[in-house]
Design brief:
- This protein is an alpha/beta fold and about 450 residues long.
- Among the domains are: about 200 residues, 3-Layer(aba) Sandwich (Rossmann fold), CATH 3.40.50.720; about 80 residues, N-(1-d-carboxylethyl)-l-norvaline Dehydrogenase, domain 2, CATH 1.10.1040.10.
- The protein has 17 helices and 14 strands.
- Helix 12 crosses helix 13.
Length: about 450
């Protein structure tokens, strides 16, 4: 199969490289000439484990190419995937579809012969209808079917998620499109990945509903963690106890500082806007967003409380800035309101992140960035663990104790056991777990 991937962001680049690894001929298209030139040199613009090797392997094999010229790539393609950004629109939270619609018009002008145009970007229900209308308006003779194929990739585990998916959702009622997309995804049948064919609008809705539900699980366990702290209960044991019920499951039941990233905040806001446009109240989703935003802002107050409520003149070490480990993505990361709150309360902040510091400097320019966790902790009054990078799971507590001005650890990811940290001489605060016995 010949595939054109429009957009070389996170979804487009990972999907394009994986499709090429299946043996397809893939051309990734992007308007950003500098990015395309860098990709051609083997420079990957995002941090995703294994992606650099996957791209390099398929470029060498002649299955993966990069270009700024859409016309030739689309003209020769059996399937064209739209994988451009759909950021939250300022003011109302709706998904901004400008890039999707621009891509649709450009694709329409370049199509030659029967082509399946697939929206892989996360888009509101009904976007495929408008993409189809725009294509036929631009090129009335286009022999095209528009399908929806939402992605379900986790940053930091995207390649595995693509090759070993829980499900593949394809939204189309057209038999020709079903055959093309069935052939493209056939290599995954060896992994017994179920392909769900459904209506196009249904596929668009599935993506939003899935992310809203996962965001709800995170927010639920975070609220339970607040209650657990008050009543002397260990939220990790609560989460395990309810997660062993296979109707609930263990995933996304890890208490922490709130969810962030490129998907959950944006998609829940967009889902609320879709519902508002159709006069359907989504009170649970609305509450999830509100609770999550309040939680992220509350984390700075939690740190302050550990230091007696006064941060002026204190120096705080922050370990982890990205919204999750194994990515450099800072979009809506809990570290941003945390650090901002610490600064507002008069603290000085030092930070270290294994992959996200260059991105973080754009969001948090007024803090000191350090070369490693120990340099970050030197002469500080408290150490705050914000992102659960594996590098932070086995820190030398004796070394930290001797280097810090005050031995205080605030573990917002519950990656340590209280007894171990306190045995090393620290005051220890975590999320949703009982404090020391009085």
């Amino acid at each position: 199969m010949k595939i054109a991937m429009i957009g070389t962001g996170y979804v487009g680049l990972v999907s394009g490289a994986c499709f090429a690894d299946f043996g397809n001929q893939v051309v990734c298209v992007d308007r950003d000439a500098e990015k395309i030139a860098a990709l051609a040199r083997g420079e990957i613009p995002i941090f995703e484990p294994g992606l650099d090797d996957l791209v390099a392997t398929n470029v060498r094999a002649g299955r993966l190419d990069f270009t700024t010229t859409l016309t030739e790539a689309v003209g020769e393609a059996d399937a064209v995937f739209i994988a451009v950004g759909t950021p939250s629109r300022r003011g109302d939270g709706h998904a901004d579809l400008a890039y999707v619609y621009t891509a649709a018009r450009e694709i329409a002008a370049a199509i030659r012969g029967f082509t399946v145009v697939v929206t892989k970007s996360t888009v509101p229900v009904g976007t495929g209808d408008e993409v189809e209308r725009l294509i036929h308006e631009t090129n009335p003779q286009a022999d095209v079917v528009v399908a929806s194929n939402p992605e379900f990739l986790r940053e930091g585990a995207a390649i595995r998620d693509f090759k070993f998916p829980d499900r593949i959702v394809v939204g189309t009622d057209d038999e020709r499109a079903r055959k093309v997309l069935g052939d493209i995804y056939r290599p995954l049948s060896l992994n017994q990945a179920p392909i769900m064919f459904t209506a196009r609008r249904t596929a668009e809705m599935i993506k939003y509903a899935a992310n809203a539900f996962l965001a709800t699980k995170i927010t639920f366990i975070n609220e339970m963690a607040d209650l657990a702290e008050k009543v002397g209960v260990n939220i990790q044991e609560v989460a395990r106890g309810i997660g062993l019920d296979n109707r609930i499951g263990t995933k996304f039941l890890h208490a922490g500082p709130g969810f962030g990233g490129s998907c959950f905040p944006k998609d829940t806001r967009a889902l609320l806007k879709i519902a508002l446009d159709h006069d359907v109240p989504l009170r649970i989703v609305d509450a999830v967003l509100a609770v999550n935003e309040n939680r992220k802002r509350a984390m700075a107050r939690k740190v302050a409380a550990t230091l007696g409520g006064q941060l002026r003149g204190k120096t705080i070490a922050v370990l982890g800035l990205t919204f999750k480990p194994d990515t450099d993505d800072m979009r809506e990361a809990p570290s941003i309101p945390l650090v901002t709150g610490l600064l507002d309360m008069g603290a000085r902040v030092r930070a270290f992140d294994p992959a996200g510091m260059s991105q973080a400097q754009r969001e948090l320019p007024d803090i000191e960035y350090c070369e490693d966790a120990y340099a970050c902790a030197k002469d500080t009054d408290a150490l705050v663990i914000v992102t659960e990078w594996v590098q932070f799971r086995a820190l030398d507590l004796k070394r930290l104790h001797s280097d810090m001005r005050q031995p205080i650890i605030v573990d917002l990811r519950n990656i340590y056991r209280r007894e171990d940290v306190e045995a090393a001489g620290f005051t220890y605060e975590s999320i949703g777990r009982p404090g020391p016995p009085h």
